[in-house]
Write a structure and sequence with these properties.
Blueprint lengths: L11 E7 L3 H11 L5 E6 L5 H8 L2 E5 L5 H14 L4 E4 L11 H13 L6 E5 L7 H18 L11 E4 H7 L8 H13 L3 E5 L13 H20 L8
Parallel strand pairs: 1-2, 1-4, 2-3, 5-7
Antiparallel strand pairs: 4-6, 5-6
Helix pairs in contact: 1-2, 3-6, 5-8, 7-8
């Protein structure tokens, strides 16, 4: 699979998928924009997410109707590749990822590039001990199940705070996953292609909003996701190159 040339010098973007995040996205964009250009993919919001994001300094791409986080990320990847971006750093628009930590991702990416091994995936690793109990259980079970399936310990498969390189962006474009499964698929693709995965400690931030996770239902869904991830990880490399 060919990747568009980095025609604009291999710059890096912040990519924020967002759905109905008008009350929260403004400060996230404003702080992120202090470090990097910001691209927001509005996923069929019915509130003022677009207006707030643009006023805070983001470029906004709109997709309608609402298609899910995975689809929003792929829309952002296509835009970033077309712009010649070397990488994007993805984070959520709800304030659960601290944009002030962007320099840590930039530093990790620069270190890998200096060593001759450009990063394809750097995942922000949360501390499960600082999560609400239901989320802690869900994330711990997901980690154990996925790690057993792919034969490698996966520190945090659900964190959306990530550095994603050009090759990995391009390799995901044929995916049809629309939900959290897309972020698991990214990990599986890296394992298939033998691309290193790096883990970067980040703050674990949760507000007072109630969790909508139902542990047993979430586990059943995750088992199906894990089976697909196992097949991808064990498949032959596709040879995605520059």
């Amino acid at each position: 699979m060919a990747i568009p040339d980095a025609a604009q010098g291999g710059h890096i973007l912040v990519l924020i998928p967002a759905h109905d995040e008008a009350p929260r996205i403004g400060p996230v964009v404003a702080i992120a924009a202090l470090h990097l250009p910001v691209l927001v993919v509005d996923d069929g919001s019915r509130d003022d997410t677009v207006l707030v994001a643009e006023r805070a300094g983001a470029r906004v791409v709109r997709q309608t109707p609402n298609q899910g986080k995975g689809a929003a990320l792929r829309t952002g990847f296509r835009a970033a590749l077309a712009d010649g971006a070397e990488a994007v750093v993805t984070l959520d628009g709800d304030g659960q990822h601290d944009p002030a930590e962007l320099p840590a991702f930039l530093g990790a990416g620069a270190r890998r590039a200096a060593g001759g091994m450009p990063a394809e995936l750097i995942v922000g690793r949360r501390d499960f001990r600082h999560m609400p109990p239901v989320r802690r259980l869900s994330n711990w079970l997901g980690t154990v199940v996925l790690s057993a399936a792919v034969g490698r310990w996966i520190d945090d498969n659900q964190s959306g705070y990530r550095w994603v390189g050009r090759r990995l962006m391009a390799a995901t474009l044929e995916s049809t996953e629309s939900s959290f499964a897309f972020e698991v698929e990214m990990i599986a693709i890296c394992l298939r292609e033998a691309w290193p995965i790096e883990w970067l400690p980040i703050r674990t931030i949760y507000g007072d909003e109630p969790s909508h996770i139902r542990p047993l239902r979430h586990l059943r869904e995750f088992l199906a996701v894990t089976r697909r991830a196992r097949r991808i990880a064990r498949d032959s490399p596709r040879g995605v190159s520059e």
